Request: fold
Amino acid sequence: MQLTRAQLEAFDRDGFLVFPELLAQEEIDILLSETERVSRVEADGIFREGDDQQAKSLFRLHEPDGATASPAFRQLARSPRCLGLAQQVLADDALYLHHSKVNMKAAIQGSTWPWHQDFMSWKLDGIERPNMVTVLVMLHEATPINGCLYFIPGSHKLNRLDPYYDTSTAYRLWAADTKTMRKAMALYPEPVSVTGAAGTVAVFHCNLLHASGHNLSPVDRWHAFMCFNTVANHPQPVEDPRPDYVRSTNWNKLVLGDNSQISNAAAG
Ligand code: SIN
Ligand code: MN
Reply:
């Protein structure tokens, strides 16, 4: 999948691109059943919420080893539709995954992610430059009522803002406070809802302001996130580093796979 010059210019201007239904339903079905399987595992890197402790975030699906390993997600990460996309927008072929995760926003109960830039956290992981992007894969249809993401177009040009540590949900993260967001929202266009059918893919810059709301609907909203960094930009040592499932220390260059490998991973 070769991006056009116009798409690369749009990424530079807006900080994101969206590709409707890039994955086939057959591939999505495999990834959904893998998500279900991994969500039943008890391991570090699985976050739960609510009275019934439903899974909210599953980390480290892309490695060949470990309790949360998934061959199908490993192939998804290396596919031209994830790794290939990231290589083009970062203009670098030597990439690795800082982390992979699935966020399972459950029907009725699934909670919000406050406004943030991913690089708010990743800089504190010891990463110097914002040469990072996330590829988001919708495993279910995403709608405003089921808690789709919102992007603020062009906000990646703000560079990294000063964050506060948000502890309001099961998955704690560095986020932008109200004063910061009021200022940022006065400067940029209205946030856009990142909606689409299952199989839709978006790629977004690590300084893009984004958030998502509560899932008020009766259907689940599960999304996979592959967060790519350039090998050259791997983290420097920090005091008390976050665990490997969220701050990978496997900086080996990922080898591009081909588009048939998600289906093959399920067969094998
Ligand atoms: C994120 O920004 O990291 C996750 C947002 C979501 O899953 O809604
Ligand atoms: Mn994020």
